[in-house]
Specification:
By secondary structure, the protein is α+β, with helices and mostly antiparallel strands. About 30% of the residues lie in helices and about 25% in strands. It has four domains: about 50 residues; about 200 residues, Penicillin-binding protein 2a (Domain 2) (Alpha-Beta Complex); about 350 residues, Beta-lactamase, CATH 3.40.710.10; about 110 residues, 2-Layer Sandwich (Trypsin Inhibitor V, Chain A), CATH 3.30.10.20. Helix 9 runs antiparallel to helix 18, helix 11 packs parallel to helix 13 and helix 11 packs across helix 17. Keywords: Membrane, Transmembrane, Transmembrane helix. It is found in: Membrane.
């Protein structure tokens, strides 16, 4: 009885326990069924997530283009290769979707990559032998950043289990071209709520400055799928299209930028300077058409970069004598300037407590000369006397402020800094008049110079032309020229431009080497000392910054240019102005031709113009003979009997420098060797030719042989080179620069101009 009672009691306890467990489990099931949650996790959402695949639809990064629409930076697709090795991924054994034959796959891939099969075999075997075996494997760096061509070659092999992920890579088709302005972008890892993601991010230059506009917003696609990743019949597909980045158009002109880069590269090879800068700007709008610095880098592979800074906006230098144009402008604006007034050059001693100011020829000077001649000769004494005796040091400081040489220009480039006006002691106030002690950036000098080029109106420089929606083409933002102030009057600007012309063309000009062939140019040379590590000025004729600030055509400037070359390696008989003048002349001459600026007419104003006769129905040879007799170059296109088109109109009054092109009713290809691009463009427009040009300067090669009959729509390719490109242009400048005045000028420039 005792045993049965115990048995019944234990049985009852077990029944109660089992009932309790049943009630708890049933209650739990009822709760789960009622709420659809487990530990706060929605079963419906969990199931939805498990059977839903989501993929990012990457946004295309916006392009960077020049003012004419030439692409400077864009996303080029690259591919990452991976292999699926899990055989459960293959639904149909006859059409496998995983790697079936490791050895064959490795051998075929090795042929494409020109490497050993073990590179791929080891990765595949390691994935298969892992515990647990991997679903897929990748191939390290060799399988990344593949080109479209490589991808297509691999796909053509028909290897099962080999797949690709597409990702963009930023590409810069022109290499080093304007790299400090464009900058570069790279893939970077960014932490988000969903984990670490890889995005292309701007690192430097415009890529960083305009990253917000360029990057865009990714989209996505999601759908419900089965175990084998195939869409269900009702996949509940959701697609959000990506918002592609905006396109950024710069004010840069690819042709002019190329001229600048090519000139700097030539000088870099010849003289191996420590640093160089060059910037070309539209005189009336402030648009930067070209800007370059050396050392530079290739944004496609920015490795071992010597200089990240854009020196034009980020590196202040002593401007040297280029600042004298503003000293003379201040004196003229104040009504205190008489260009014919004489002063004693050589040495200027204000008082015994101030170190004397000396002219560039060791203080010997040139005796009594006029202030106009003093500007030609770049006299430090003349500049100092103007400030100390006529303008007054405080008033001159007001003008330096008015020209904004103490302020940032506000240019839309990252990293702009400002120089410093050193103006505490009497001698500093004197030396500021000729560019010693105080510092400025090249872009500050360019901004100030626009007031002289633009009849007193100083304009703000800018690099971003407009921002455009890449999808719709709608202009989102548009930059416009901005006049920031008028530090001088129109009359003063005109008078200073006259002085700048004398500084290039005058009898005693220091800038004779900068004279152009077809255009008048005015400007001021500069030779500034460099402060060494010990805080003292460095010695030696090469330890200088040689520069030029000028504008052309000088009567009504279209372009302003600044070039500086620091510490070039000069041979015996070479001067610091040689590398600078080579850059200025090549860039300005060819840029003005490219922009279709009419050659300067100032030297032929006295020559009688020729009136174009009525050539309709006339014989071409008869018209050509009449023009030739008046000194006009004429090219007759074809062997026809009548003139059908011409680049002039009957009644036009033309100068003897004009090249007239007469097209006959039977046109054939003329010999265009030596023609400018503008002349070939005129010919192509008249004959409706498909013109393609390579290079800049003048024609040296044409794709269509002379006397070949031409039809509308015919293709014509031409190659152009700057003048004398086949010879060493710098050595040629040296050979031709043999006049006595130029030799004296060279000696002067290599003296301590700022003392």
């Amino acid at each position: 009885m005792r045993k049965n009672r115990t048995t019944h009691m234990m049985a009852g306890i077990l029944i109660i326990v089992f009932v309790a467990i049943f009630v708890v489990l049933t209650g739990r099931f009822i709760y789960i069924q009622a709420t659809g949650e487990v530990n706060g996790v929605s079963l419906e959402e969990w199931a939805e997530q498990k059977r839903t695949s989501s993929y990012i639809l990457p946004a295309e990064r916006g392009k960077i283009l020049d003012k004419n629409g030439m692409i400077l930076a864009y996303d080029r697709p690259t591919y990452r290769m991976y292999a699926i090795i899990d055989e459960t991924y293959s639904e149909d054994p006859e059409n496998p979707r995983h790697v079936v034959d490791v050895d064959r796959t490795a051998e075929e891939l090795a042929k494409v990559f020109e490497t050993e099969p073990e590179v791929f075999r080891d990765s595949l075997q390691a994935g298969l032998q892992a515990e647990p075996p991997r679903f897929q494997v990748e191939f390290g760096n060799i399988g990344k950043q593949l080109t479209q061509k490589q991808k297509e070659e691999i796909e053509a092999l028909g290897l099962p289990g080999i797949y690709f992920d597409e990702s963009p890579m930023r590409f810069y088709p022109n290499g080093m071209f304007a790299s400090h302005i464009i900058g570069f972008a790279r893939e970077t890892e960014i932490e988000t709520e969903d984990g670490v993601k890889t995005e292309v991010t701007g690192i430097a230059g415009m890529e960083r400055q305009m990253d917000e506009y360029l990057r865009g917003t990714n989209g996505y696609i999601s759908y419900q799928r089965d175990l084998y990743n195939s869409k269900l019949l009702d996949p509940n597909e959701i697609i959000k299209e990506p918002e592609h980045g905006d396109d950024v158009y710069l004010t840069l002109d690819q042709k002019i930028q190329t001229l600048v880069d090519e000139a700097l590269t030539t000088v870099e090879k010849k003289y191996d300077p420590e640093r160089m800068t060059a910037v070309v700007m539209h005189a009336k709008t402030g648009e930067v058409l070209a800007m370059s610095s050396r050392p530079s880098y290739n944004p496609n592979n920015p490795a071992n970069v010597e200089n990240w800074y854009n020196d034009v906006v980020s590196t202040p230098i002593e401007p040297g004598s280029t600042v004298k144009m503003f000293t003379w402008a201040a004196a003229i604006e104040e009504g205190l300037y008489d260009g014919n007034e004489l002063f004693k050059s050589g040495t200027y001693n204000v008082n015994e407590k101030i170190i004397p100011i000396r002219d560039v020829n060791e203080g010997k000077g040139w005796g009594l000369i006029s202030y106009d001649e003093g500007f030609e000769r770049s006299s430090n004494v003349a500049a100092s006397k103007l400030v100390w005796e006529k303008i007054g040091t405080e008033k001159f400081l007001d003008y330096l402020h008015a020209f904004d040489v103490d302020k940032k220009t506000g240019i839309d480039l990252p990293g702009e800094v400002t120089g410093e006006i050193l103006y505490n002691w009497p001698r500093e106030k004197l030396t500021a008049s000729f560019g010693q002690g105080s510092t400025v950036t090249p872009i500050q000098m360019m901004k100030a110079a626009t007031s002289i080029a633009n009849d007193g109106k100083m304009v703000k420089p800018y690099v971003i032309s407009r921002i455009v929606d890449s999808t719709s083409g709608e202009v989102i933002e548009q930059n416009k020229p901005e006049v920031v102030s008028e530090p001088i009057s129109k009359e003063t600007a005109e008078q200073v431009r006259g002085l700048l012309r004398r500084a290039v063309e005058g009898e005693h000009a220091t800038g004779k080497r900068f004279k152009l062939e077809d255009y008048s140019i005015g400007g001021k040379t500069g030779t500034a000392q460099i402060v060494g590590p010990d805080g003292k000025y460095m010695k030696g004729r090469e330890n200088m910054i040689f520069s030029f600030l000028g504008m052309a055509p000088i009567e009504d400037p279209e372009l302003v240019i600044f070039v500086s070359v620091q510490q070039p390696n000069l041979e015996i008989g070479e001067y610091g102005s040689m590398p600078v003048s080579f850059i200025v002349k090549n860039v300005m001459e060819n840029s003005l031709h490219y922009l279709n600026i009419d050659p300067d007419e100032s030297e032929v104003e006295e020559i009688e113009r020729f009136e174009v006769p009525d050539f309709n129905g006339e014989e071409p040879e008869k018209i050509a003979q009449s023009m030739n007799e008046n000194g006009i170059k004429v090219t007759v296109v074809g062997e026809g009997n009548t003139v059908t088109q011409a680049n002039v109109e009957p009644g036009d009054k033309i100068l003897p420098t004009k090249h007239v092109i007469l097209v006959t009713d039977e046109p054939s290809m003329p010999d265009v060797t030596g023609w400018s691009k503008r002349e070939v463009v005129q010919l192509a427009e008249m004959l409706d030719l498909q013109l393609e040009s390579f290079g800049s300067g003048f024609v040296v090669l044409q794709s269509v042989e002379p006397n070949t009959p031409l039809r509308e729509g015919s293709y014509l390719g031409i190659e152009l080179l700057p003048p004398n490109e086949e010879r060493d242009p710098v050595e040629e400048t040296e050979e031709n620069g043999s006049t006595e005045d130029e030799q004296i000028d060279g000696e002067n420039e290599n003296q301590d101009e700022t003392n």
